[in-house]
Amino acid sequence: MSGQSREMLDASDPIVTPMMARTEAFLARSGLSPEKIVAPLGRTLQRAAADPRSLVFGVRRRPRLEDQYHWVLQLTKPLKLALYARMGDPEAVKEGMPTKGMIACYLRSYECEYLLELGVPASQLMAVPQGAQGQIERLLLSGRVRYLVQSPGFAKTNLKRLGYGLEVFREIWLKDSSAIYLVADKTADAAMIDRLAATSQADLPPLACD
To answer: Tens digit of pLDDT per residue, the chain (210 long)?
Structure first.
């Protein structure tokens, strides 16, 4: 099983902890014991396409990917997505979508894709490779970008690790987003998929939420 290398793989995270508990309980019930490999999302999805026995932890469900994956197990309730600016930044917009000023998001992430779908030009996005936790929060705190897009739960947790509270950011908008899943590529081993599909999801640890 592969997983993302950002906030989603820190077992102390209040969102990740129930996600991992739900995943591990489900896989134990299925009788599968996959090796865990931590890598950026793009690499994990490539691995899943190349390795028919791979599962990927931490993929947001969205229409573009619907036919590309088996959506094996829902891990969260639909999460929120927020656009933040630094509190007190006089040049940040008060509401709506900014037309200037860089917006930080993670490379190949749902957030970057969502902004492009909203019509934000790619030249306005700072797509940050996934790595150390709190990267985009650091960029906003330092003033290297004017905005970031992040789920409030992840933003709050990352700021806490950096010694701050969410009050250092100003929320410009808050939108409904999609849930996060455990997935397998459509080329995955058919016997594995059948085994997972036959595994009961009743009475698993609850879905994570913001």
So the answer is: 544 433 345 556 778 889 999 999 999 999 988 777 666 666 677 777 788 888 988 888 988 889 999 999 999 999 999 999 999 999 999 999 999 999 999 988 889 999 999 999 999 999 998 776 789 999 999 999 999 999 998 899 899 989 999 999 999 999 998 999 999 999 999 999 999 999 999 999 999 987
Report CA-CA distances (Å) from 115 to 65, 94, 120, 124, 155: 16, 18, 6, 10, 17
Q: Which H/E stretch holds residue 193?
A: helix 190-198
CA distance 88 to 158: 20
Please give the full DSSP string across 17-58, using - where no structure is assigned: HHHHHHHHHHHHHHT--PPPEE--HHHHHHHHHH-TT--EEE
Please give the Cα distance from 128 to 156 (Å, whole number): 19
Report how far apart, in Å, the C-alpha atoms of 90 and of each of 46, 106, 109, 168 are: 42, 25, 28, 14
Radius of gyration of the chain (CA): 18
Query: Measured between alpha carbons, how far is 133 from 149 in angstroms, rounded to an integer?
Result: 15
Predicted TM-score of the model (pTM): 0.81
CB–CB of 166/152 below 8 Å? Answer: yes
> How are strands ordered across the β-sheet holding 2-3?
37-38, 2-3, 56-60, 180-185, 69-74
Round to the nearest angstrom and report the end-to-end CA distance of the chain: 24
